[in-house]
Design brief:
about 375 residues, alpha/beta, Rossmann fold, seven-stranded parallel sheet, 13 strands, globular, disordered C terminus, Ergot_Alk_Oxidoreductase, NmrA-like, NAD(P)-binding protein
Length: about 375
């Protein structure tokens, strides 16, 4: 489900007319910033789409780059992204490239027009192979000075035999940082930044059926296990800031060379999440501690039909980290340093998605029984 707010917490569509101002100031001489040509990979995904939307419609970022290109992984994904841009009335995207693993030459040529890349590993089983291909293409292009790699919180605590989907982010981070020390890649990777994004709060939308029907949040963690969900909009805002930051050697000095860990504003146990939801929705919501087997059943049902199998594995692995006590921390100093806030509070997240989580009222029939209203799934 696409996020309902932009990274500022505003309703989607709040930007003026949804029109891009990208490159206008630079092209007209009203901006002294160097030229910046950005590529966002996995742009059909929720993270990529939201970063695209933010860059093209938010005045904070839209005047700070010259061009914006999206890379997707199929023709269907290109059509979906095109439809999204038209539906949301968003203009200014230079091009949508379709990744072809058999055509490295075209990929390298496309990369030669790019100096800044947000590399988002796709949520699919071959994400490591694709990420390596993209990094190799950027090395051969020798132009992608600013390389921002989106990784995952918890990858450093994950064990290779127990949480392989999480742990592989460590390997990919190493590949992303490698060009910094290679002279033969010239500009590529000279100005890197790794963002380890926390568990997306939007993943809780997988349990809206239980929330609406039973007033429960079924999560495969114990009563006392804690983690710190971060709203997707906060991650998008952080990425947009990094991509449009400027320093002597590429990215801004406050982010260049950094490994930025970004979790939500606070840690929550399951009951605390339910309490926050109750406060936001104005109705009682309870936490239900379920087994991993039950969590797998939910993901295998129609509730998880839009989630890639690799992403399902990632989610289950992250919950296992929570149960192991390896997520008992928050990391929002960088976010607060940049934006002056720790990010969207979880109560406000539930308010934004209140229609999805709030239990449906039951109609009382003449016989005194009750009948649940049918809910149209998004």
């Amino acid at each position: 489900m696409a996020p309902k707010r932009n990274a500022k917490g505003e309703p989607k569509g709040a930007a003026e007319n949804g029109e891009s101002k990208n490159g206008v100031a630079a092209q007209n001489g009203g901006n002294d910033l160097p030229e910046r040509n950005i590529l966002i990979t996995a742009a059909e995904g929720q993270t990529g789409r939201l970063v695209l939307e933010l860059l093209l419609t938010d005045e904070t970022y839209a005047s700070k780059f010259t061009s914006l290109t999206a890379l997707v992984f199929s023709e269907d994904a290109k059509s979906t992204l095109d439809d999204f841009m038209q539906t949301e009335d968003i203009a200014g995207l230079k091009e949508i490239l379709v990744f072809d693993p058999e055509d490295e030459e075209t990929l390298v040529e496309a990369m030669k027009n790019i100096d800044t890349c947000l590399l988002i590993p796709p949520a699919r089983k071959d994400k490591a192979k694709i990420t390596r291909t993209l990094l190799e293409a950027s090395k051969k292009a020798k132009t992608v000075r600013n390389l921002v790699f989106l990784s995952s919180v918890g990858c450093d605590y994950a064990e290779r035999d127990k949480q392989p989907r999480l742990r592989e982010f460590i390997d990919l981070e190493a590949l992303a940082m490698q060009p910094k020390g290679l002279t033969e890649t010239e500009l590529t990777g000279h100005s890197p930044c790794v963002v380890r994004a926390g568990f997306y709060a939007e993943n809780l939308l997988l349990y809206t059926k239980q929330a609406q029907g039973e007033g429960k949040l079924p999560i495969p963690i114990g009563k006392d296990h804690k983690f710190s969900p971060i709203p997707l909009g906060d991650v998008a805002q952080l990425c947009a800031h990094i991509l449009t930051s400027y320093g002597q050697h590429g990215l801004g000095e406050d982010v260049r060379g950094q490994v930025i860990i970004a979790t939500g504003s606070a840690m929550y146990a399951g009951e605390e999440l339910a309490e926050a939801a109750s406060q936001a929705l104005g109705t009682k919501m309870e936490f239900a501690s379920i087994s991993e087997a039950e969590a797998k059943k939910i993901l295998a049902s129609d509730q998880g039909e839009e989630v890639d199998e690799a992403e399902k594995e990632y989610l289950l692995e992250y919950y296992s980290l929570v149960r192991e006590g390896k997520t008992n921390y928050t990391a929002n100093i960088a976010f607060e340093h940049i934006f002056g806030t720790k990010g969207q509070e979880i109560v406000d997240f539930f308010k934004v998605y209140s229609a999805e989580f709030k239990p449906k009222k039951r109609r009382i029939t003449k016989s005194g029984g009750s009948k649940a209203k049918k809910h149209a799934q998004d």
